[in-house]
Protein backbone atom coordinates (compact mmCIF):
# COMPACT_ATOMS: atom_id res chain seq x y z
CA UNK A 1 0.00 0.00 0.00
CA UNK A 2 1.28 3.47 -0.93
CA UNK A 3 -0.04 6.58 0.83
CA UNK A 4 0.35 9.62 -1.42
CA UNK A 5 -0.46 9.65 -5.13
CA UNK A 6 1.98 12.27 -6.35
CA UNK A 7 4.81 11.51 -8.79
CA UNK A 8 6.90 9.86 -6.08
CA UNK A 9 4.08 7.66 -4.79
CA UNK A 10 3.09 6.74 -8.34
CA UNK A 11 6.62 5.55 -9.12
CA UNK A 12 6.88 3.55 -5.89
CA UNK A 13 3.52 1.91 -6.62
CA UNK A 14 4.45 1.13 -10.21
CA UNK A 15 7.77 -0.46 -9.24
CA UNK A 16 6.10 -2.61 -6.58
CA UNK A 17 3.43 -3.66 -9.07
CA UNK A 18 6.08 -4.42 -11.66
CA UNK A 19 7.69 -6.66 -9.04
CA UNK A 20 4.54 -8.76 -8.83
CA UNK A 21 2.67 -7.18 -5.91
CA UNK A 22 -0.96 -6.10 -5.72
CA UNK A 23 -0.77 -2.38 -4.94
CA UNK A 24 -3.27 0.15 -3.59
CA UNK A 25 -2.46 3.85 -4.02
CA UNK A 26 -4.25 6.17 -1.57
CA UNK A 27 -4.55 9.89 -2.39
CA UNK A 28 -6.75 12.47 -0.66
CA UNK A 29 -6.44 15.27 -3.25
CA UNK A 30 -5.42 14.76 -6.88
CA UNK A 31 -3.58 11.82 -8.34
CA UNK A 32 -0.45 13.35 -9.83
CA UNK A 33 0.21 15.36 -6.70
CA UNK A 34 1.75 18.72 -5.83
CA UNK A 35 4.34 18.74 -8.60
CA UNK A 36 1.84 18.18 -11.39
CA UNK A 37 -0.79 20.72 -10.38
CA UNK A 38 0.74 23.30 -8.05
CA UNK A 39 4.55 23.17 -8.15
CA UNK A 40 7.14 22.01 -10.68
CA UNK A 41 5.02 21.92 -13.82
CA UNK A 42 2.88 25.08 -13.51
CA UNK A 43 5.72 27.17 -12.08
CA UNK A 44 7.99 26.33 -15.01
CA UNK A 45 5.14 26.98 -17.43
CA UNK A 46 4.82 30.46 -15.92
CA UNK A 47 8.57 31.10 -16.08
CA UNK A 48 9.38 29.85 -19.56
CA UNK A 49 7.75 32.62 -21.66
CA UNK A 50 9.53 35.40 -19.79
CA UNK A 51 12.87 33.61 -19.97
CA UNK A 52 12.39 33.01 -23.67
CA UNK A 53 11.54 36.66 -24.30
CA UNK A 54 14.65 37.78 -22.40
CA UNK A 55 16.80 35.33 -24.39
CA UNK A 56 15.36 36.48 -27.71
CA UNK A 57 16.15 40.11 -26.87
CA UNK A 58 19.82 39.16 -26.48
CA UNK A 59 20.13 38.10 -30.12
CA UNK A 60 19.91 41.00 -32.62
CA UNK A 61 17.65 40.41 -35.59
CA UNK A 62 15.01 38.40 -33.74
CA UNK A 63 11.62 40.17 -33.93
CA UNK A 64 10.21 40.26 -30.40
CA UNK A 65 7.74 42.35 -28.45
CA UNK A 66 8.23 44.04 -25.11
CA UNK A 67 6.06 41.81 -22.95
CA UNK A 68 4.45 38.40 -22.67
CA UNK A 69 0.69 37.85 -22.92
CA UNK A 70 -0.52 36.78 -19.44
CA UNK A 71 -3.75 35.25 -20.73
CA UNK A 72 -1.88 32.98 -23.13
CA UNK A 73 0.71 32.11 -20.48
CA UNK A 74 -2.06 31.09 -18.05
CA UNK A 75 -3.82 29.12 -20.78
CA UNK A 76 -0.65 27.17 -21.57
CA UNK A 77 -0.14 26.47 -17.86
CA UNK A 78 -3.71 25.20 -17.63
CA UNK A 79 -3.05 22.86 -20.55
CA UNK A 80 -0.17 21.30 -18.63
CA UNK A 81 -2.13 20.95 -15.39
CA UNK A 82 -5.42 19.97 -17.02
CA UNK A 83 -7.02 22.52 -14.67
CA UNK A 84 -6.76 19.93 -11.93
CA UNK A 85 -8.45 17.07 -13.75
CA UNK A 86 -6.64 13.92 -12.64
CA UNK A 87 -8.68 11.49 -14.74
CA UNK A 88 -5.65 10.65 -16.86
CA UNK A 89 -3.56 9.77 -13.81
CA UNK A 90 -6.30 7.54 -12.42
CA UNK A 91 -6.54 5.70 -15.75
CA UNK A 92 -2.76 5.36 -15.86
CA UNK A 93 -2.73 3.77 -12.39
CA UNK A 94 -5.45 1.31 -13.31
CA UNK A 95 -3.66 0.53 -16.58
CA UNK A 96 -0.49 -0.57 -14.80
CA UNK A 97 -2.34 -2.69 -12.26
CA UNK A 98 -2.57 -0.23 -9.37
CA UNK A 99 -5.83 0.23 -7.44
CA UNK A 100 -6.36 3.99 -6.89
CA UNK A 101 -8.24 4.80 -3.68
CA UNK A 102 -9.39 8.36 -3.13
CA UNK A 103 -9.37 9.43 0.49
CA UNK A 104 -7.16 10.43 3.40
CA UNK A 105 -5.08 7.50 4.59
CA UNK A 106 -4.05 7.27 8.24
CA UNK A 107 -1.80 4.60 9.75
CA UNK A 108 -3.75 2.93 12.56
CA UNK A 109 -1.62 -0.13 13.24
CA UNK A 110 1.06 -2.40 11.86
CA UNK A 111 0.49 -2.67 8.09
CA UNK A 112 -2.93 -1.08 8.67
CA UNK A 113 -4.29 2.08 7.03
CA UNK A 114 -7.72 3.54 7.70
CA UNK A 115 -9.17 5.65 4.90
CA UNK A 116 -11.53 8.55 5.67
CA UNK A 117 -14.94 7.09 6.50
CA UNK A 118 -13.57 4.08 8.34
CA UNK A 119 -12.53 1.64 5.64
CA UNK A 120 -9.61 -0.33 7.05
CA UNK A 121 -7.02 -1.66 4.61
CA UNK A 122 -4.35 -4.15 5.56
CA UNK A 123 -1.13 -4.48 3.59
CA UNK A 124 0.20 -8.01 3.35
CA UNK A 125 3.79 -6.85 2.91
CA UNK A 126 4.46 -3.14 3.35
CA UNK A 127 3.18 0.42 3.58
CA UNK A 128 5.13 3.10 1.69
CA UNK A 129 4.55 6.70 2.75
CA UNK A 130 4.93 9.29 -0.02
CA UNK A 131 2.90 12.20 1.32
CA UNK A 132 5.38 14.90 0.31
CA UNK A 133 5.68 18.22 2.10
CA UNK A 134 3.59 21.19 3.22
CA UNK A 135 4.43 24.91 3.48
CA UNK A 136 5.97 26.26 6.66
CA UNK A 137 4.18 29.43 7.78
CA UNK A 138 6.22 31.92 9.81
CA UNK A 139 4.86 33.57 12.93
CA UNK A 140 4.21 37.13 11.78
CA UNK A 141 1.63 39.35 13.51
CA UNK A 142 -1.40 39.84 11.29
CA UNK A 143 -0.50 37.17 8.75
CA UNK A 144 -3.56 35.10 9.59
CA UNK A 145 -5.83 38.08 8.85
CA UNK A 146 -4.89 38.76 5.23
CA UNK A 147 -5.21 35.36 3.46
CA UNK A 148 -1.67 35.28 2.08
CA UNK A 149 -0.71 33.30 -0.98
CA UNK A 150 1.26 30.12 -0.70
CA UNK A 151 2.98 28.50 -3.65
CA UNK A 152 -0.32 26.87 -4.70
CA UNK A 153 -2.13 30.18 -4.98
CA UNK A 154 0.77 31.66 -6.93
CA UNK A 155 1.05 28.89 -9.49
CA UNK A 156 -2.72 28.61 -9.98
CA UNK A 157 -3.46 32.36 -10.13
CA UNK A 158 -5.97 33.39 -12.79
CA UNK A 159 -4.89 37.04 -12.91
CA UNK A 160 -1.73 39.06 -12.36
CA UNK A 161 -1.86 41.20 -9.22
CA UNK A 162 -0.84 44.81 -9.79
CA UNK A 163 1.50 44.67 -6.76
CA UNK A 164 2.93 41.44 -5.33
CA UNK A 165 5.05 41.00 -2.24
CA UNK A 166 7.15 37.85 -2.01
CA UNK A 167 8.60 36.80 1.34
CA UNK A 168 11.51 34.35 1.09
CA UNK A 169 14.70 34.00 -0.90
CA UNK A 170 14.55 30.30 -1.66
CA UNK A 171 13.74 28.67 -4.98
CA UNK A 172 9.99 29.32 -4.86
CA UNK A 173 10.51 32.94 -3.85
CA UNK A 174 12.94 33.87 -6.62
CA UNK A 175 11.16 31.87 -9.32
CA UNK A 176 7.73 33.32 -8.60
CA UNK A 177 9.12 36.84 -8.17
CA UNK A 178 10.59 36.65 -11.65
CA UNK A 179 7.56 34.97 -13.21
CA UNK A 180 5.12 37.60 -11.98
CA UNK A 181 7.45 40.47 -12.81
CA UNK A 182 7.59 39.29 -16.42
CA UNK A 183 3.79 38.89 -16.37
CA UNK A 184 3.51 42.58 -15.50
CA UNK A 185 3.26 42.82 -11.71
CA UNK A 186 5.20 45.24 -9.55
CA UNK A 187 7.08 42.71 -7.42
CA UNK A 188 8.83 43.27 -4.10
CA UNK A 189 11.06 40.38 -2.98
CA UNK A 190 11.83 40.45 0.74
CA UNK A 191 14.75 38.33 1.96
CA UNK A 192 16.55 38.14 5.27
CA UNK A 193 20.12 37.77 3.97
CA UNK A 194 22.37 39.69 1.65
CA UNK A 195 21.34 37.52 -1.27
CA UNK A 196 18.85 34.74 -2.11
CA UNK A 197 19.70 31.03 -2.42
CA UNK A 198 22.07 31.05 0.58
CA UNK A 199 23.03 27.37 0.25
CA UNK A 200 24.60 28.02 -3.14
CA UNK A 201 27.83 29.91 -3.89
CA UNK A 202 27.59 33.67 -3.39
CA UNK A 203 28.05 34.30 -7.09
CA UNK A 204 24.84 32.36 -7.78
CA UNK A 205 22.73 34.51 -5.47
CA UNK A 206 24.34 37.70 -6.76
CA UNK A 207 23.61 36.74 -10.38
CA UNK A 208 19.99 35.90 -9.57
CA UNK A 209 19.51 39.25 -7.81
CA UNK A 210 20.92 41.03 -10.85
CA UNK A 211 18.56 39.08 -13.11
CA UNK A 212 15.58 39.82 -10.90
CA UNK A 213 16.34 43.52 -10.87
CA UNK A 214 16.75 43.51 -14.64
CA UNK A 215 13.27 41.98 -14.82
CA UNK A 216 11.93 44.82 -12.67
CA UNK A 217 11.81 43.10 -9.27
CA UNK A 218 12.50 45.38 -6.30
CA UNK A 219 14.73 43.34 -3.97
CA UNK A 220 14.78 44.14 -0.25
CA UNK A 221 17.84 42.42 1.22
CA UNK A 222 18.63 42.06 4.92
CA UNK A 223 14.95 42.49 5.65
CA UNK A 224 11.83 40.65 6.74
CA UNK A 225 8.33 41.39 7.98
CA UNK A 226 7.54 42.77 11.43
CA UNK A 227 3.80 42.65 10.76
CA UNK A 228 1.13 42.71 8.07
CA UNK A 229 -2.36 44.15 8.04
CA UNK A 230 -5.32 44.67 5.75
CA UNK A 231 -5.81 48.27 4.65
CA UNK A 232 -7.94 50.07 2.10
CA UNK A 233 -6.55 49.19 -1.28
CA UNK A 234 -4.55 46.13 -0.29
CA UNK A 235 -2.27 44.65 2.32
CA UNK A 236 0.28 46.71 4.26
CA UNK A 237 3.66 45.14 4.95
CA UNK A 238 5.79 46.53 7.76
CA UNK A 239 9.36 45.67 6.81
CA UNK A 240 12.15 45.27 9.32
CA UNK A 241 13.95 48.58 9.39
CA UNK A 242 10.82 50.67 9.21
CA UNK A 243 9.80 50.69 5.53
CA UNK A 244 6.19 50.03 4.63
CA UNK A 245 4.71 48.66 1.42
CA UNK A 246 1.19 48.31 0.08
CA UNK A 247 0.61 45.22 -2.08
CA UNK A 248 -2.39 43.46 -3.50
CA UNK A 249 -1.14 39.97 -2.66
CA UNK A 250 1.60 38.55 -0.43
CA UNK A 251 3.26 35.27 -1.36
CA UNK A 252 4.82 33.55 1.66
CA UNK A 253 7.60 31.29 0.42
CA UNK A 254 9.56 30.51 3.56
CA UNK A 255 10.14 26.80 3.12
CA UNK A 256 8.36 23.48 3.46
CA UNK A 257 8.31 20.63 5.95
CA UNK A 258 7.46 16.91 5.77
CA UNK A 259 3.73 16.13 5.52
CA UNK A 260 3.40 13.77 8.48
CA UNK A 261 0.62 15.61 10.30
CA UNK A 262 -2.63 13.64 10.29
CA UNK A 263 -0.83 10.55 9.05
CA UNK A 264 -1.13 8.63 12.32
CA UNK A 265 2.59 8.29 12.92
CA UNK A 266 1.98 8.92 16.62
CA UNK A 267 0.54 5.40 16.86
CA UNK A 268 4.04 4.17 16.01
CA UNK A 269 5.77 6.38 18.56
CA UNK A 270 6.87 8.91 15.95
CA UNK A 271 6.43 12.69 15.99
CA UNK A 272 3.87 14.32 13.70
CA UNK A 273 5.48 17.05 11.65
CA UNK A 274 8.93 15.46 11.80
CA UNK A 275 10.52 13.70 8.83
CA UNK A 276 10.29 9.93 8.53
CA UNK A 277 13.97 9.09 8.65
CA UNK A 278 14.94 6.15 6.50
CA UNK A 279 17.88 4.04 5.52
CA UNK A 280 18.99 3.94 1.90
CA UNK A 281 16.48 1.17 1.13
CA UNK A 282 13.66 3.49 2.22
CA UNK A 283 12.92 1.59 5.43
CA UNK A 284 11.76 3.85 8.30
CA UNK A 285 14.54 3.31 10.78
CA UNK A 286 12.58 3.85 14.02
CA UNK A 287 9.87 1.27 13.25
CA UNK A 288 10.47 -2.44 13.78
CA UNK A 289 9.18 -5.17 11.52
CA UNK A 290 10.47 -4.21 8.07
CA UNK A 291 7.02 -3.08 6.91
CA UNK A 292 7.05 0.73 6.95
CA UNK A 293 8.89 2.59 4.20
CA UNK A 294 8.97 6.22 3.11
CA UNK A 295 10.15 8.08 0.02
CA UNK A 296 10.35 11.65 -1.21
CA UNK A 297 9.95 14.94 0.65
CA UNK A 298 8.37 13.28 3.68
CA UNK A 299 11.77 11.79 4.56
CA UNK A 300 13.59 15.13 4.57
CA UNK A 301 16.47 13.55 2.63
CA UNK A 302 16.35 15.32 -0.71
CA UNK A 303 13.14 17.33 -1.20
CA UNK A 304 13.07 17.38 -4.99
CA UNK A 305 10.66 15.54 -7.28
CA UNK A 306 13.33 13.85 -9.38
CA UNK A 307 15.25 12.72 -6.31
CA UNK A 308 12.07 11.41 -4.72
CA UNK A 309 11.26 9.41 -7.85
CA UNK A 310 14.78 7.99 -7.77
CA UNK A 311 14.26 6.86 -4.17
CA UNK A 312 10.82 5.51 -5.11
CA UNK A 313 12.38 3.25 -7.74
CA UNK A 314 14.90 1.81 -5.31
CA UNK A 315 12.36 1.40 -2.51
CA UNK A 316 9.61 -0.05 -4.71
CA UNK A 317 12.07 -2.61 -6.01
CA UNK A 318 13.32 -3.35 -2.48
CA UNK A 319 9.79 -3.95 -1.20
CA UNK A 320 9.02 -6.25 -4.12
CA UNK A 321 12.23 -8.19 -3.55
CA UNK A 322 11.54 -8.53 0.17
CA UNK A 323 7.99 -9.74 -0.51
CA UNK A 324 9.30 -12.36 -2.94
CA UNK A 325 11.74 -13.68 -0.34
CA UNK A 326 14.74 -12.35 -2.21
CA UNK A 327 17.63 -10.52 -0.56
CA UNK A 328 17.48 -6.74 -0.41
CA UNK A 329 20.82 -5.28 -1.42
CA UNK A 330 21.88 -2.58 1.02
CA UNK A 331 25.27 -1.97 -0.55
CA UNK A 332 26.08 1.50 -1.81
CA UNK A 333 25.05 2.16 -5.42
CA UNK A 334 23.02 -1.06 -5.59
CA UNK A 335 19.60 -1.31 -7.24
CA UNK A 336 17.91 -1.11 -3.83
CA UNK A 337 19.86 1.80 -2.30
CA UNK A 338 19.33 5.53 -2.84
CA UNK A 339 23.04 6.25 -2.44
CA UNK A 340 23.02 9.34 -4.64
CA UNK A 341 21.15 11.23 -1.90
CA UNK A 342 24.49 11.52 -0.10
CA UNK A 343 26.65 12.52 -3.04
CA UNK A 344 24.90 13.92 -6.09
CA UNK A 345 21.58 15.76 -5.74
CA UNK A 346 21.03 17.86 -8.87
CA UNK A 347 18.85 20.94 -8.77
CA UNK A 348 17.97 23.74 -11.20
CA UNK A 349 16.62 27.16 -10.29
CA UNK A 350 14.72 28.24 -13.42
CA UNK A 351 15.23 31.97 -13.09
CA UNK A 352 16.98 34.11 -15.69
CA UNK A 353 19.86 33.43 -15.30
CA UNK A 354 19.43 29.78 -14.42
CA UNK A 355 21.34 28.17 -11.56
CA UNK A 356 22.25 24.49 -11.89
CA UNK A 357 24.07 22.65 -9.12
CA UNK A 358 24.94 19.14 -8.02
CA UNK A 359 27.04 17.77 -5.19
CA UNK A 360 29.03 20.15 -3.01
CA UNK A 361 28.60 23.90 -3.46
CA UNK A 362 32.01 24.51 -1.89
CA UNK A 363 34.85 22.77 -0.08
CA UNK A 364 34.23 20.88 3.15
CA UNK A 365 36.48 21.86 6.03
CA UNK A 366 39.24 19.34 6.64
CA UNK A 367 38.69 17.59 3.32
CA UNK A 368 41.15 17.55 0.38
CA UNK A 369 38.95 19.77 -1.74
CA UNK A 370 39.95 22.37 -4.30
CA UNK A 371 37.57 24.87 -5.89
CA UNK A 372 37.94 26.18 -9.42
CA UNK A 373 35.79 29.18 -10.48
CA UNK A 374 35.73 30.59 -14.00
CA UNK A 375 33.54 32.81 -16.13
CA UNK A 376 31.48 31.07 -18.79
CA UNK A 377 33.12 32.81 -21.72
CA UNK A 378 33.44 30.44 -24.66
CA UNK A 379 32.46 30.62 -28.31
CA UNK A 380 29.24 28.75 -27.62
CA UNK A 381 28.08 31.19 -24.94
CA UNK A 382 28.96 34.20 -27.09
CA UNK A 383 26.89 32.81 -29.96
CA UNK A 384 24.08 31.95 -27.58
CA UNK A 385 23.53 35.53 -26.46
CA UNK A 386 25.16 38.93 -26.86
CA UNK A 387 26.75 39.94 -23.59
CA UNK A 388 26.41 36.42 -22.19
CA UNK A 389 27.29 36.47 -18.49
CA UNK A 390 27.78 33.27 -16.52
CA UNK A 391 30.00 31.51 -14.04
CA UNK A 392 31.01 27.93 -13.40
CA UNK A 393 32.49 26.19 -10.37
CA UNK A 394 33.80 22.71 -9.78
CA UNK A 395 34.81 21.20 -6.47
CA UNK A 396 37.47 18.51 -6.78
CA UNK A 397 38.59 15.83 -4.35
CA UNK A 398 42.32 16.22 -4.95
CA UNK A 399 43.26 12.91 -3.32
CA UNK A 400 41.03 10.86 -5.60
CA UNK A 401 41.17 13.26 -8.55
CA UNK A 402 37.37 13.24 -9.02
CA UNK A 403 34.62 15.80 -9.13
CA UNK A 404 32.46 16.13 -5.99
CA UNK A 405 30.50 19.26 -6.87
CA UNK A 406 29.59 21.60 -9.71
CA UNK A 407 27.61 24.83 -10.03
CA UNK A 408 26.71 26.68 -13.22
CA UNK A 409 25.04 30.09 -13.47
CA UNK A 410 23.89 31.62 -16.74
CA UNK A 411 21.32 31.48 -19.50
CA UNK A 412 20.36 27.90 -20.40
CA UNK A 413 22.96 26.22 -18.16
CA UNK A 414 20.49 23.60 -16.92
CA UNK A 415 21.45 21.33 -19.80
CA UNK A 416 25.05 21.25 -18.50
CA UNK A 417 23.99 19.68 -15.24
CA UNK A 418 23.51 16.05 -16.14
CA UNK A 419 27.06 15.70 -17.43
CA UNK A 420 28.31 16.93 -14.04
CA UNK A 421 25.96 14.51 -12.26
CA UNK A 422 27.30 11.61 -14.32
CA UNK A 423 30.88 12.62 -13.58
CA UNK A 424 30.20 12.71 -9.82
CA UNK A 425 28.15 9.51 -9.61
CA UNK A 426 30.57 7.65 -11.87
CA UNK A 427 33.59 9.02 -10.00
CA UNK A 428 35.16 9.75 -13.37
CA UNK A 429 38.84 10.69 -12.88
CA UNK A 430 39.58 14.19 -14.12
CA UNK A 431 42.42 12.74 -16.14
CA UNK A 432 39.83 10.68 -18.03
CA UNK A 433 37.27 13.50 -18.12
CA UNK A 434 39.89 15.48 -20.04
CA UNK A 435 39.27 13.10 -22.95
CA UNK A 436 35.52 13.85 -23.03
CA UNK A 437 35.83 16.44 -25.79
CA UNK A 438 33.05 19.08 -25.84
CA UNK A 439 31.51 19.95 -29.18
CA UNK A 440 32.34 23.31 -30.73
CA UNK A 441 30.74 25.83 -30.51
CA UNK A 442 28.59 24.95 -27.48
CA UNK A 443 28.39 26.22 -23.92
CA UNK A 444 29.70 22.76 -22.92
CA UNK A 445 33.14 24.03 -23.90
CA UNK A 446 33.20 25.38 -20.36
CA UNK A 447 34.21 21.85 -19.28
CA UNK A 448 37.46 22.19 -21.20
CA UNK A 449 38.13 25.59 -19.63
CA UNK A 450 37.42 24.27 -16.14
CA UNK A 451 39.86 21.40 -16.56
CA UNK A 452 42.48 23.76 -18.00
CA UNK A 453 42.03 26.04 -15.01
CA UNK A 454 42.45 23.06 -12.71
CA UNK A 455 45.77 22.33 -14.36
CA UNK A 456 45.20 19.45 -16.76
UniProtKB/TrEMBL annotation:
Gene Ontology molecular-function annotations: dihydrolipoyl dehydrogenase (NADH) activity; flavin adenine dinucleotide binding
Free-text cofactor note: Binds 1 FAD per subunit.
GO BP terms, alphabetized: 2-oxoglutarate metabolic process
Keyword Flavoprotein on entry: yes
Domain Pyridine nucleotide-disulphide oxidoreductase dimerisation as annotated: residue spans: 345-447
Residues at which FAD binds: 44, 105, 131-133, 297
Pfam families: Pyr_redox_2, Pyr_redox_dim
Keyword annotations of the record: FAD, Flavoprotein, NAD, Nucleotide-binding
Disulfide bonds: 35-40
Sequence positions that bind NAD(+): 168-175, 255
InterPro entries cross-referenced by the UniProt entry: Class-I_Pyr_Nuc-Dis_Oxidored (IPR050151), FAD/NAD-bd_sf (IPR036188), FAD/NAD-binding_dom (IPR023753), FAD/NAD-linked_Rdtase_dimer_sf (IPR016156), Pyr_nuc-diS_OxRdtase (IPR001100), Pyr_nucl-diS_OxRdtase_dimer (IPR004099)
Keyword Aminoacyl-tRNA synthetase: no
Required cofactor(s): FAD
Domain FAD/NAD(P)-binding, residue spans: 1-307
Highest rank taxon of the organism: Bacteria
Family (UniProt): Belongs to the class-I pyridine nucleotide-disulfide oxidoreductase family.
Name assigned to this protein: Pyridine nucleotide-disulfide oxidoreductase
Source organism per UniProt: Amycolatopsis alba DSM 44262
Amino acid sequence: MVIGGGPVGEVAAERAARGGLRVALVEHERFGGECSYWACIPSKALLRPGNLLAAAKRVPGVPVGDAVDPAKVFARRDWFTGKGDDTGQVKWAEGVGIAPIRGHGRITGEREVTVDGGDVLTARHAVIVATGSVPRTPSIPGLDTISPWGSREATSAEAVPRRLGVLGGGVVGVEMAQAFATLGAEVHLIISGARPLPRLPDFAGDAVVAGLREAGVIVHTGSGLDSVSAVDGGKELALKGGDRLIVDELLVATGRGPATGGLGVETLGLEAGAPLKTDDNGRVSAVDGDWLFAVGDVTGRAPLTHQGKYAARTTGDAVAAQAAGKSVDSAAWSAHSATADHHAIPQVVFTDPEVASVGLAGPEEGKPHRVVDIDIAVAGSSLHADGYAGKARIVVDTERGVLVGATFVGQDVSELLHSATIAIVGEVPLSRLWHAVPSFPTISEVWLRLLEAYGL
